[in-house]
Specification:
The complex is a heterodimer of chains A (about 450) and B (about 475). With about 450 residues, chain A is mainly α. Chain A is about 75% helix and about 0% strand. Helices cover about 75% and strands about 0% of the residues of chain B. The chains are: A mainly alpha (about 450), B mainly alpha (about 475).
């Protein structure tokens, strides 16, 4: 409860400093996240009815809060409107991850959706507005589906607690299907991904960093927990449905990313492709490793994806870098940005020894363990294909020179450096040490 | 010192070396040299510590994870130690041959970074960690080829990276299929557990290793990568990275699934022979001197596969000998091909001619290496090819003697290359070029020449290692 009060209180307090010293707002926000993370580390969750703090959720919450704190550090005055929303998001994410009640899940889902609309619409430009409106319209449609499905589901279940949910044959199946259709919008699953490719690329990159990583991960994990009982109950449907969507999502995401010229678009489609990988643990529900795999994917993805979008945010703010042509010879202009970007991209591509590889490996293992090796082979080849566009960005950074392009130096602010170091430490730590995730998920 | 530091030490050292030596570039070079000499000493020391009569020397067990066999188990046997010694020795020679490379701080830091995972590949027996190190070697190579390479370096670097990464994915899936069947990720445990239905696993793994070797039809990345890479890096690609493929084939395909390998050995033989002959003919056709050497390299790796496919003690020993021989023979050829290009600014042999008259010693080393490649008695090439053909005849009968045609073909391309580029009349391009070479580079070439002849005349040390490594296949 303490963490929630601190986060929401800080969120209400920081706007007071927006006109004066933005640094104070950043410090307050970072301190609030640090406090909340410490509180969770000590085992103090929300501790109210409908909320439980298990070790796996504890790990995820710490990761989410640390990543949000690191994000906060990289902010400059330009991103000030995001500070309080990020704090609210921290509180909502904690609640969403801890809840064990379906009604709460739906309510918090909407809360997070509203925070994400505000995050997206904060900074005013035409392009930004276009992205934000796309996101809002898609999100509103999704909410409609979710509420319809939930209403149907509510007709037949005596209780909303995850442990006491009753399943009534095909009626529940229809309800669950409709709810999933809505949730797939949020998870950017093909064919409900249309908004994401544009929205992530057009809104402010720091907002996109939060949207495409923290929010997506929180939604996916909470969905897995909420729908676990349905996934088990309709095993055959689950395997078919999720395998199908996993394959088309990752394949289309990767192929679309191959043809992009704007870096933000590449990262958006890479995010969509990763949503595809995240469906593999859903399909592999029969394996005891499916939840571990999903948590590992979530933890790894959140560090990598936040980091790349924040780096891009830095580069756009400082040097108006948008396309692959702009990023040519980046290593000459800013060796630090180049190095961080390269390591995180390699991690996203699934190159060892970073977290991106081992999280995918555990996911693939969960798939094989559930007997879905063809799905895993397709996913693995997709992952190899994705190297095509990640390496293409690295090629522009290191192998091309700045000849004929802007050669001015780009400096990294100390806050940004610290934030990126934290994210990089997370990427490498979870790449080498797998025990925390396995222990916390009880394997 | 803890054995895990052999792997992670260089990886941690690399960024430090880079930052220290940005002001004083010579530091990186000497740091790399010192580290590689240390690695060579430790590897030789490991060889002496091996248990007598074969088997694994346990070095440690790190990073254990409950519920998932993701422990970094370090164990070495004679085969892996042979590879470690070869790797360390080649790395030292590579430092010599890159003595005057540009941007030394970054170059040698990347070499140091490369040393960590390549040692990991040969030291771990855990399949997942093997895969991790296997993939990690690609990253420094991507940058070494992409930054220091020739005209089409970017294309070559990315093609190499994508191609081998793509093929490795089959291997990863096969590792998980093994884990599913046996509940073990450790090679020594899997061997005892025996796989029940290994056919799919065998093929997936074979694809992964075949692309690295490379076997026809997965070889197309190699000519690009080897030609565009700087010559010293071509040496590492041919001498170490291709050996990873052969090592994997012996360790994880033959030793882990001997019965299945017997079942499919004819496919391996056919693919190996096709590779040998196909690449040999391409080498004859080639005007480009470095591409000719690259195809010659592929051709020899095809022979290694033929030897491995016999699944006998004789064949595997011959394969190990030829792996080491190939590394030592092909390296000076790559180096001299790159050096000739550097001096004459042409790749084409018909535009050269008469180099022998202007640089007799270096040309002589090329001729020696070329003679070893075609299997002249008294050099490593002869022992390698002879043992391979003898073991293959024992296993398959007389028809396999067609493999000897490979030797004939290599005589064709080597002698013709020597005639066109080194003997003949002095061409205008050669006449106006100045053929000088730095002392460390020349020293490295001389060491190669000495080793080629030494092991050609006295092959016993390598067969001692083979004897220890393949004792389970009924040694001598």
């Amino acid at each position: 409860m303490n963490s929630l009060i601190i986060l929401i209180g800080a969120g209400l307090l920081v706007p007071l400093f927006f006109k004066g010293k933005i640094v104070i707002a950043k410090y307050i926000a970072t301190a609030a996240f640090a406090f909340a993370a410490f509180n969770v580390f000590m085992g103090h969750g929300i501790s109210m009815e409908y909320f439980t703090l298990t070790p796996d959720i504890q790990l995820l919450e710490i990761v989410v809060l640390i990543v949000l704190a690191a994000t906060m550090m990289t902010f400059s005055g330009f991103e000030r409107p995001l500070v309080s929303q990020t704090l609210f998001l921290g509180a909502a994410s904690m609640a969403m991850l801890e809840t064990n009640n379906f009604l709460m899940f739906i309510v918090l889902f909407e809360v997070i959706a509203i925070i994400s609309y505000v995050l997206g619409a904060n900074i005013r430009s035409r392009l930004n507005a276009e992205g934000a409106i796309k996101m809002f319209v898609a999100g509103a449609t999704a909410s409609g589906f979710i509420l319809l499905g939930f209403a149907l589901f509510a007709m037949v279940t005596p209780s909303f607690n995850y442990a006491e949910i009753a399943i009534r044959g095909n009626f529940t199946l229809v309800a669950v299907g409709i709810m999933l259709a809505g949730i797939f919008y949020k998870m950017t699953i093909v064919p409900m991904h249309g908004w994401a490719g544009d929205a992530y690329a057009q809104i402010n990159h720091s907002a996109a960093a939060i949207l495409s990583s923290v929010i997506k991960v929180v939604v996916v994990i909470a969905t897995f927990k909420a729908f676990y009982i349905f996934l088990q109950a309709y095993l055959n449907t689950t395997v078919l449905l999720f395998s199908f969507f996993a394959i088309i999502t990752m394949t289309l995401g990767n192929f679309m990313a191959l043809f992009q010229k704007k870096i933000a678009k590449i990262l958006s489609f890479s995010s969509i492709a990763h949503a595809g990988y995240m469906l593999i643990p859903f399909a592999a529900i029969a394996s005891g490793y499916s939840y571990t795999a999903l948590v590992y994917l979530a933890v790894a993805y959140i560090f990598m994806q936040t980091s790349v979008f924040l780096l891009l945010n830095d580069l756009r703010r400082e040097a108006h870098i948008k396309t692959l042509d702009d990023i040519r010879g980046l290593y000459q202009r800013s060796p630090l940005h180049a190095l961080f970007f390269t390591i995180q991209l390699l991690s996203l591509a699934g190159v060892p020894i970073m977290a991106g590889f081992i999280s995918k490996a555990v996911t693939f293992w969960a798939g094989v363990d559930a007997g879905l090796w063809p799905l895993v082979l397709i996913a693995a080849l997709n992952s190899a294909l994705s190297v095509g566009y990640y390496a293409w960005v690295i090629k522009h950074i290191y192998f091309d020179t700045t000849d004929g392009y802007n050669t001015s130096k780009i400096y990294m602010t100390p806050g940004s450096l610290l934030g990126q170091l934290i994210l990089l430490a997370g990427t490498i730590y979870f790449g080498i040490f797998a025990a925390p995730v396995f222990v916390s998920t009880g394997i | 010192m803890s054995s895990i530091m052999l792997i992670f030490g260089p990886m941690l050292l690399a960024p430090f070396v880079y930052f220290i030596s940005r002001g004083a570039e010579w530091v990186a070079k000497w740091a790399a040299l010192a580290l590689f000499v240390l690695l060579l000493i430790i590897s030789v020391d490991l060889y002496h510590a091996l248990p007598v009569g074969g088997g694994f020397l346990v070095l440690g067990d790190y990073l254990r994870v409950p519920g998932f066999d993701y422990a970094l188990t370090l164990q070495v046997d004679a085969l892996s130690v042979a590879m470690l010694i070869l790797t360390a020795a080649l790395l030292i020679l590579v430092v010599f041959t890159s003595w005057e490379e540009k941007m030394q701080a970054a170059y040698f830091s990347l070499l140091i970074l490369f040393a960590g995972p390549i040692f990991g590949v040969f030291m771990t027996t855990n399949l997942l960690w093997f895969f991790i190190f296997w993939e990690m070697t690609l990253v420094p190579m991507l940058f070494l080829v992409g930054i220091w390479g020739g005209e089409r370096k970017v294309y070559a670097a990315i093609k190499f990276f994508l191609y081998t990464h793509f093929a490795s994915m089959f291997m990863l899936v096969s590792f998980f299929l093994i884990y599913k069947q046996t509940g073990q990720m450790d090679f020594t445990m899997i061997k005892e557990a025996m796989l029940a239905t290994p056919v799919l696993i065998w093929w997936f793994m074979f694809i992964g290793f075949a692309a690295k070797l490379p076997l026809f039809p997965f070889h197309t990345w190699l000519p690009d990568a080897h030609v565009e890479a700087p010559s010293s890096i071509s040496v590492l690609l041919a001498g170490v990275l291709l050996k990873m493929g052969a090592y994997g084939l012996i360790r994880f395909v033959v030793e882990m699934m001997p019965a299945t390998t017997m079942q499919f050995s004819m496919y391996m033989v056919v693919l190996g022979l096709t590779t040998t002959l196909f690449a040999g003919f391409l080498a004859i056709y080639e005007r480009h001197i470095k591409k000719m050497v690259a195809y010659s390299s592929i051709s020899h790796m095809g022979l290694v596969v033929v030897a491995i496919a016999t699944v006998t003690y004789d064949g595997l020993s011959a394969a190990l000998y030829e792996m080491i021989g190939h590394a030592l023979v092909i390296s000076p050829m790559f180096l001299i091909a790159g050096w000739v290009h550097h001096k004459t600014h042409t790749w084409y042999m018909d535009e050269m001619g008469g180099i022998m008259q202007k640089a007799p010693y270096i040309s002589a080393i090329f001729v020696l290496a070329g003679m070893a490649a075609l299997g002249l008695p008294g050099t490593m090439g002869f022992v390698g090819e002879l043992t391979i053909i003898v073991s293959a005849i024992k296993a398959y009968g007389w028809w396999i003697a067609v493999a000897a045609i490979a030797s004939l073909i290599s005589a064709g391309y080597v002698i013709w290359a020597v005639r066109r580029a080194f003997h003949a009349e002095i061409s205008p391009i050669v006449a106006k070029s100045k053929f000088d070479m730095s002392k460390p580079e020349f020293l490295a070439l001389c060491i190669y020449a000495v080793l080629i002849v030494f092991f050609g005349v006295y092959p016993q040390p390598i067969f001692d290692i083979a004897n220890n490594a393949f004792a389970m296949f009924g040694g001598m």
